[in-house]
Amino acid sequence: MGKKNSKYVSRQPDEKGIIHWSDEENQVWHDLVKRQLEIIPGKACDEYMEGLRLLDMPHDRIPQLHEINQVLEETTGWQVAQVPALIPFDEFFRLLANKQFPVATFIRTREEFDYLQEPDIFHEIFGHCPLLTNPAFAHFTHQYGKLGYAASPKERVYLARLYWFTVEFGLLKTQQGLRIYGGGILSSPGETRYALESDTPERKPLKPLDALRTPYRIDIMQPIYYTINDVNELFEIADMDIMAMVEEAMELGLFEPKFPPKPKDAA
């Protein structure tokens, strides 16, 4: 969601809605998917793995958006929408409020294979779309979009933290142990391991008010993760008075950051 300029340019579909990816771009997709599929079994939550099965994405090429849309439409009524590399908050929330998940149609280069700060098509399709087949996750994302679209710029900054600690970096406590449902983790091999296996981060039960007050940085491994016990908890959170919590969070102020300030010369 865009503040700075992107060096990436989204590819435009042709008149039939098909995006023509290069062999190298398809190969990057293949290599990213192959690597992540080796890591996520036993780490991703069951609902994500089921969504992956339903989407049945190609491994040898980047999927076309209509292929994803067909499954999302049948499961939860969602769609993905082709967008430029970075979009304003207003457009981001408008799309979510209309059950459209924005997908920037570019894929990272080899130089940024392990990590890039901007969400590319691998992050959006592989990281997020499997869970958009899940009713609770889809409902939460829809409600979040509607709230964000009506919110003030200051309120949106607080709302962004709730999204960060659920949709992007959420963990699930299951009887089999901790599992991942956040797409920011599931599209990053390093964070997939770190989130579950490292002793460094804190892991706390999610209280929406706490998440709204927790600062984060996008360019580091997360120092704190919030956990829920069941994906269906997202139904309950979505139907809480989140904007009243945003007001309360504004009055209480932010928690102390659990990370050092960003270096001055950082982009």
From TrEMBL:
<dbReference type="InterPro" id="IPR036329">
    <property type="entry name" value="Aro-AA_hydroxylase_C_sf"/>
</dbReference>
<feature type="binding site">
    <location>
        <position position="128"/>
    </location>
    <ligand>
        <name>Fe cation</name>
    </ligand>
</feature>
<dbReference type="InterPro" id="IPR036951">
    <property type="entry name" value="ArAA_hydroxylase_sf"/>
</dbReference>
<keyword id="KW-0479">Metal-binding</keyword>
<feature type="binding site">
    <location>
        <position position="168"/>
    </location>
    <ligand>
        <name>Fe cation</name>
    </ligand>
</feature>
<protein>
    <recommendedName>
        <fullName>Phenylalanine-4-hydroxylase</fullName>
        <ecNumber>1.14.16.1</ecNumber>
    </recommendedName>
</protein>
<dbReference type="InterPro" id="IPR018301">
    <property type="entry name" value="ArAA_hydroxylase_Fe/CU_BS"/>
</dbReference>
<keyword id="KW-0408">Iron</keyword>
<dbReference type="GO" id="GO:0006559">
    <property type="term" value="P:L-phenylalanine catabolic process"/>
</dbReference>
<feature type="domain" description="Biopterin-dependent aromatic amino acid hydroxylase family profile">
    <location>
        <begin position="1"/>
        <end position="267"/>
    </location>
</feature>
<dbReference type="GO" id="GO:0005506">
    <property type="term" value="F:iron ion binding"/>
</dbReference>
<dbReference type="InterPro" id="IPR005960">
    <property type="entry name" value="Phe-4-hydroxylase_mono"/>
</dbReference>
<comment type="pathway">
    <text>Amino-acid degradation; L-phenylalanine degradation; acetoacetate and fumarate from L-phenylalanine: step 1/6.</text>
</comment>
<dbReference type="Pfam" id="PF00351">
    <property type="entry name" value="Biopterin_H"/>
</dbReference>
<dbReference type="InterPro" id="IPR001273">
    <property type="entry name" value="ArAA_hydroxylase"/>
</dbReference>
<keyword id="KW-0503">Monooxygenase</keyword>
<keyword id="KW-0585">Phenylalanine catabolism</keyword>
<dbReference type="GO" id="GO:0004505">
    <property type="term" value="F:phenylalanine 4-monooxygenase activity"/>
</dbReference>
<comment type="similarity">
    <text>Belongs to the biopterin-dependent aromatic amino acid hydroxylase family.</text>
</comment>
<dbReference type="InterPro" id="IPR019774">
    <property type="entry name" value="Aromatic-AA_hydroxylase_C"/>
</dbReference>
<keyword id="KW-0560">Oxidoreductase</keyword>
<feature type="binding site">
    <location>
        <position position="123"/>
    </location>
    <ligand>
        <name>Fe cation</name>
    </ligand>
</feature>
